[in-house]
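[User] I have long wanted to understand how a fold can be written as tokens. Those tokens are not coordinates but codes from a learned vocabulary of shapes. Could you go through the record with me and say what the backbone is doing? Thank you; the sequence and its tokens follow:
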Amino acid sequence: MDAADKRMLDREALRNMIQQWNANRLDLFELSEPNENLEFHGVMRFYFQDSGQKIATKCIRVASDATVSDVIETLIEKFRPDMRMLSLGSYSLWETHGPDDERRLEPHEKPLLVQLNWHADDREGRFLLKCLTNNEGSLNTVNEKADQNFKRKLSKREKKELKKKEKLSRLKSDTNDENRPVAEKLYTELPETSFTRSISNPEAVMRRRRQQKLERKLQQFRSKDGGPDTGGTLKIYGSSLCPDVPYKTLLLSVGDTAAGVLREMLDKYGLARHDPHHYCVVQVDTTDNSEYILEDDECPLAIVMTHPHRSE
């Protein structure tokens, strides 16, 4: 296959992915057809919370080759036009998939491609612009110096009122609400029912798709001739990964290997980018509590179905 044929196949695959994306999106958020260089564009929604303010949201048109640095520069002009002269290093862009699942994007990453890959994984997320707090001090210093002349002209009564307002502002910033992670506020102040990219609630759409996919997979595992089922659910314990979520239930076939199960578990615990070689699946014999580390090609569900009362 020559380079031209490969590019044509890549373009067709990209076109199909974009068509699937557009099928569940409002017209405003539809992506364009890819050109011969596999470039396309679309409108994306971004969120930002300034100090002491409610979360704001803006929509901008983004090209597929636009990097995080390019997007941040545009977002600063949209959210904070008075901050355009500040260094881009003062801001970062994050993708979030819930209050406890967020990742900082690298400057070279391309947000529109990141977003399109969510659809391929049946996920939904949001983009959040954050101001790095370690730069806030220098910004406040600049503002204070700029206002020094003005403050010296205030009367005693005006100074007293100003101090009172500053004190109230500090007390307000110390409340639990202000100390909550911004990603958590993003999903509480702007819940799933808010206007988003999807024709209907995007998170609910993705949950329904995952449920339908699981039901189809389970139907394939069920025996049609009275023989043993070829798959089922298996509870995998992972309290060492997250004590608050002691286990996850996976839908597996008897041929699914420990290596595949491990990757799926890391994904479910939000650790998909971690190296699987640093983790293992352990079989525990409940009769004597002995442990055995499964090899990558061993099949956990097949083991449990063979010894249902001894393994977990």
Observations:
- The first helix runs from residue 3 to 23.
- The beta strands are 41-48, 56-63, 91-96, 102-104, 126-131, 231-237, 247-253, 282-285, 290-293.
- Residues 134-151, 174-179 have pLDDT under 50 and may be disordered.
- The chain has three domains: 3-137+175-188, 141-173, 222-306.
